[in-house]
Amino acid sequence: GIDGLRRVAPPVTRTLRVRHWFRPDRTRSWQASYNLACAYAAVAQARRVAGDGQGTLRDLTDRVVSSLWFTVCNPQGEMDRPWDWIFNDPDFNCLKAEGEEAFAAFRDFLDVQERRDYPSVPQPRAGCIARSAATGRKPTGLKPGPAEAKAPVADLVEQLGRGDYLEVRAE
User: Fold this and answer.
1) What does 67-97 look like in DSSP terms, one character per residue?
2) Residue among 157, 155, 137 nearest 147 (CA)
3) What gap in Å lies between CA 36 and CA 28, rounded to an integer?
4) Which residue pairs, CB below 8 angstroms and at least 24 apart, start in 43-52?
């Protein structure tokens, strides 16, 4: 404090006290980051309608993508399959425009996120044979013989009953 014209040092007890900051070890929430991305997308839509240049739109798109990466990579994030949320959110419809080069980063983000949420299942080169878990024999009602080994895995899985499994043989 100040005592007249002379500066007085604060009492030691006040300067040594423990300071409690509001959430010092926390970052912004994934919800706030998602909402920020929606806000940037709305601004990008308005700037596109106003006829702003590609540089401005590209900068806004980068901000949207940065916020969305924070959203999907946040360990406290509670989104299951973020691609579904983001792809179907009407706030981001303007960024999905195919002809707009400034929005390419957003389309690339969507492609990467779709591959993360829905990874493709590689078709095995080996033959697959369905077996019963109890007996080790082919379950009844499945395609017999060599056609079974050449059938796509998805077709065999649809035919399997409870307690059946696929045995993959290397060829």
Assistant:
1) HHHHHHH-TT---SSHHHHHHH-GGGGGGG-
2) 155
3) 11
4) 44/94, 44/95, 44/103, 45/94, 48/94, 48/100
Query: What is the C-alpha to C-alpha distance for residues 88 and 91, in angstroms, rounded to an integer?
Result: 9
Strands 127-132 and 164-169: antiparallel
Q: What is the pTM of this model?
A: 0.57
Phi, psi for 20 (deg, rounded to 5)? -110, 110
Cα–Cα distance for residue pair 157/115, rounded to 1 Å: 22
- List the structure tokens of 45: 């839509």
Q: For 35-72, what is each residue's pLDDT tens digit?
A: 999 999 999 999 999 988 889 999 999 999 999 999 99
* Amino acid sitting at position 84: D
SS3 sequence of 93-160: HHHHCCCCHHHHHHHHHHHHHHHHHCCCCCCCCCEEEEEECCCCCCCCCCCCCHHHHHCCHHHHHHHC
Q: Which two tokens stand for residue 16?
A: 């040594």
Tokens of 86: 């983001």
